[in-house]
Fold this protein.
Amino acid sequence: MLKISIIVPVYNEAENILPLFYEIKKYCPENFELIWIDDGSNDETLSEIQQLSFHEERVKCISLSRNFGHQNAMIAGLNYASGEIIITMDGDLQHPPVLIPTLIEELYKGADIVFTKSVFTQKEIWSKRLLNKIFYGFANFFSETKIDENITEYRAFNQKVLDSVLQFKENETFLRGIFNWIGFKSATVEFKCAERKHGSTKYSLKETLANELNKIILFNPSLIKFISIIIGFSLVITLFNVPLWNIYSANKNDSNYLQTTLILLVSVVQLFLTGMIFKLVNTAINDNRNRPLYLVKDMINF
Ligand code: UDP
Ligand code: MG
């Protein structure tokens, strides 16, 4: 039977460790390793995992030296996975382990990667959902790699996919984009995203906004085209608004207000674009520095 590596990044999820482990044990075939990545938690998360790992050799842990963020923690886990099948999921029970047999079955049927898609539930935070809709709609419009905003971080894949994903050495990794970009034969399984079992989301609205903006800017091959169009458009508005106003306005002397508004609008657009370019340059500098994505403090049961 194939070995399964389950990778779960956790940041302050102490109350979720045991319940998630028992759920996984219930639904996962015997031959598995559960790799927790403790992403610099400052609650009892690590000691919960340590206690569990005393009795269960299949429970492993990579403890990071500080909080490196969900994506980097996930990459740490991917680097140490030894199974033929790899499953990534969140540690708050929003990704139900009951789905594991279905995911594995899809792999056996021939898929290289099985995505999961969360179906809308009433209880979800509407603001996050709306933000997702706006950002992904915007990003997809300009990008060749279309990303479904409902595809989650809960996925199963084989070693071919793992090896491909590990070849990416990006400073600000966007795994959902990468898994989408690499190709391979895929299948998608739908599920109802459960509510968080304990604790609260680790991302505020502000962080979600910043994250989404980063994704659009960094994971978008057509960004330069987009920037050029906007710059061209701003130039046209700036150049032609005075002559057009003079031709079409009934009151030719009252053009100040409109002109000021348009000039302000153009300035705002340009400031936004300057910000985007600054972000791109900053990322290029960081990629060039080639700093480690995470640092390991301790390893348990490896
Ligand atoms: N997480 C992490 N590092 C962080 C933030 C979150 O490892 O800096 C983990 C978190 O413990 C959870 C998963 O990433 O297992 C998803 O986070 P969360 O549930 O807060 O995100 P949401 O579901 O609200 O988007
Ligand atoms: Mg969650």
